[in-house]
């Protein structure tokens, strides 16, 4: 019943946005939708008896956890958009007639993301995951600039082409279950239950094809080529959603499929496959970060690095590694969304991208002291400094990986050092720039609605790193068990 309430809320919000013309009300409706999704998710978390016998949706600790992350990120982006989008309209970067399209697209993206996470059927999950690609591409291209349209088309081409392979994997999965029980099924629960008795060869083929599509959705190398351009060109509120929420949809698919293959004798091969792609992804992302001179591209490659690290935790397959992989997903989403929102303030200040195509940031502490501090805090959090959550998750996954091979944490630590060097070097480079008297731009005063979400995300990420919320450990442990890869608490 609680889950159905969300569909009612989403339907009302979308209907109102279709008939509403005023920007203020369009933005407020978007905020109400996102806050409502968080509230309903929390109600579901606090009411386990409500969803344990759910038949219409698949609701468990895994998707509730990821849905909570999704709601937090969409809420932050929606509040931020109140002032940010108004600034884009005033500057002429966004046409007024596109406002309804933007807010309706953002609300619809939240709806289809929710439906993807709560879909009890693999095919339905695939359909809704594809819809997130289409809607995300629409929001990337909303500025109607050629570079944005190109990035949007590249995003659709790479992800949708790769997702065709996942569809082939779904067919193999259906056939494997049909050969086992005499009747095909694509229900997640049935597949996990019957996986151990299915033909291992068919499960392996299904896993490989499924992985290709959702690796592209997650930005895993070599299917990552769309991500730096798309995240960099999108409006900053959209970049925050892409990195903090939509990438997790792809990782959720990989998690579910890994839980299925974990029941079979080909899990070791699957684990090795994930491990290889995780290390390649982190290596390419960290090395690419070294040569970046554009802030949003640098942050985008950092997203690829962190997706690779989450994949490493999944590849190890131990319950403790999966626990910290989920924890890392939460910390990374909050930190990365905050960084993209901070980049949005710098975009308004320095008119990035400039006519030269490069970031021309200078006198940062004079013009934007707030953005300078939040950028510093965000970079420190990404590096994994104590107090912030990535310190704990990196330590936990590295210790678990040492049980597999001592070379894994050794190489990973080296890659972390490279990524940290890239972040520190970029920050120092922009801090060193000074404008001559009379040449620098006038300070841009960010609206209160743009400031609050960044502070909230940074405080939330710090709080997560300092204090384990009562019940958080048990909830994440239960999520690992729900995947079929742990022990029930």
Radius of gyration: 22 Å
Whole-number total of structural domains = 1
Separation, N- and C-terminal Cα atoms: 26 Å
Q: Provide a count of the helices.
A: 20
| Class of secondary structure makeup | mainly alpha
SSE pattern, N- to C-terminal: HHHHHHHHHHHHHHHHHHHH
Share in helix: over 70%
Could you say which overall geometry the principal axes of the C-alpha atoms support?
globular
Largest sheet: none
Mean pLDDT: 90
Estimate what percentage of residues fall within beta strands: under 5%
Which stretches are poorly predicted, pLDDT < 50 over at least 5 residues?
none
Number of strands: 0
Pfam families: Proton_antipo_M
Keywords: Cell membrane, Membrane, Oxidoreductase, Transmembrane, Transmembrane helix
GO biological process, one term: ATP synthesis coupled electron transport
Main location: membrane
Describe this structure in words.
The chain is an all-alpha fold. The protein has one domain. Helices cover 77% and strands 0% of the residues. It contains 20 helices and no strands. It is globular. Residues 119-412 form the NADH:quinone oxidoreductase/Mrp antiporter transmembrane domain. InterPro entries: ComplexI-like_HydComp, NADH_UbQ_OxRdtase, ND/Mrp_TM. Pfam families: Proton_antipo_M (PF00361). Keywords: Cell membrane, Membrane, Oxidoreductase, Transmembrane, Transmembrane helix.
Summarize the structure in short:
The chain crosses the membrane at residues 25-46, 66-89, 101-118, 124-143, 155-174, 202-223, 235-255, 270-290, 297-318, 324-346, 367-392, 404-428, 448-469. One of its GO terms (cellular component) is plasma membrane. This protein is an all-alpha fold and 489 residues long.
